[in-house]
Design a protein that fits this description.
The structure is a single chain. Helices cover 12% and strands 37% of the residues. The chain contains five helices and 27 strands. Strands 12, 14, 16, 17, 19, 20, 22, 23, 25 and 27 form a ten-stranded parallel β-sheet that branches. Helix 1 runs antiparallel to helix 3. The longest helix is centred in the first third of the chain and has 12 residues. The structure holds calcium ion (2 copies).
Length: 324
């Protein structure tokens, strides 16, 4: 958990490779700092600043020389210096990608927990500490420009950030979708903002996540359905919902089947969706298992679920706008 290191105060020599001992060699380097013939690095300043004793003032002067000389002679003992963690390093260059989710990799001191910021918001954490000094996180990118950086988190306190990486996401996902989705996938509107057209139906395979980003439209062919054996995440918002609709030019209730979440799936979290013209908006036993409200801020212009919604679907902020 602890990511900082403790080093002995006053230990400046040999220069750039201190030996853990205090002697006159350390004093001579401090003297050069005080005289201005040698400029300390920020870390050397931290180590050299030993006075006032127990409450160093960020400056190097004769007082620090006196305290260090007394420490060298064993007349006082200097409390050790806490050096904070090094900033993590993202092993990714600025550039363009068509990968989404995007696998972000980086390096840090082993034992650290890393938090990733995406477009100014905390996106993910490595959770437990980084074991071997490398980390990897799947990021959900937005269309166009994305800014990414990482920080070390120690007991909830953030350390220094990595460099910022600018990543341009170019959506090349085919707009005609059918069959099995068996790799983690993110569908954004893309610059074209064309709908994703589902002809016969798609199935999200087990251990696979399909993420639908705000503003997107899914247009379903006659009798088509979205079957979830893995995980479905719908990240719409009130002002920018994800619309599940009929592909018919004269849409009517029952044109397409609906979203079917299988009992052994990873479940579905549906936020900010419009579900219309389906036979059953959402069906499945997924909610009975998890007990979580999974459908939020969603307008269903179709019956939301099969069975009894009160027991089968936990719903929050849900408005049934279906009219016969
Ligand atoms: Ca030394
Ligand atoms: Ca001082």
């Amino acid at each position: 958990m602890a990511s900082g290191t403790e080093i002995p105060a006053g230990d400046l020599a040999p220069l750039d490779n201190p030996d853990g001992e205090l002697n006159v060699a350390d004093f001579l380097i401090l003297q050069k700092f005080v005289l201005g013939t040698l400029i300390p690095t920020p870390e050397q300043l931290l180590i050299a600043d030993v006075a006032p004793l127990g409450n160093p003032d960020g400056e190097l002067n004769a007082g620090d020389m006196v305290v260090l000389m007394r420490a060298i002679h064993g007349l006082v003992s200097l409390p050790p210096i806490q050096i904070g963690p090094n900033a993590p390093v993202l092993t990714v260059a600025n550039g363009t990608t068509d990968q989404n989710p995007y696998f972000l990799t980086g390096e840090s001191d082993p034992g650290q927990e890393i938090r990733i910021y995406l477009n100014g918001e905390p996106f993910a954490s490595t959770g437990s500490s980084v074991l071997d000094g490398t980390f990897g996180v799947q990021l959900i990118l937005e269309d166009g420009a994305n800014s990414i950086y990482a920080v070390v988190v120690d007991s909830g306190v953030e350390g220094p950030p990595s460099d910022m990486v600018a990543l341009e996401y170019e959506n090349n996902v085919p707009r005609d979708q059918d069959g099995l989705i068996d790799t983690n996938s993110v569908w954004t509107p893309g610059t074209s903002n064309e709908p994703y057209v589902i002809g016969a139906g798609v199935t999200v395979a087990p251990d696979t996540t399909l993420t639908l980003m705000p503003g997107k439209v899914l247009s379903f062919g006659a009798g088509a359905s979205l079957v979830v054996e893995g995980t479905l995440e719908v990240k719409g918002t009130a002002s920018n919902p994800v619309r599940f609709t009929s592909g018919s030019i004269w849409p009517a209730r029952g044109d397409w089947e609906g979203i079917n979440v299988k009992p052994d799936s990873g479940g579905a979290v549906i936020d900010g969706a419009i579900i219309e013209y389906a036979r059953n908006g959402i069906s499945g036993e997924f909610l009975r298992k998890s007990g979580h409200p999974l459908v939020r801020k969603t307008h269903a212009r179709t019956p939301l679920a099969t069975g009894n919604p009160a027991t089968n679907v936990a719903v929050r902020d849900y408005k049934n706008r279906y009219r016969t």
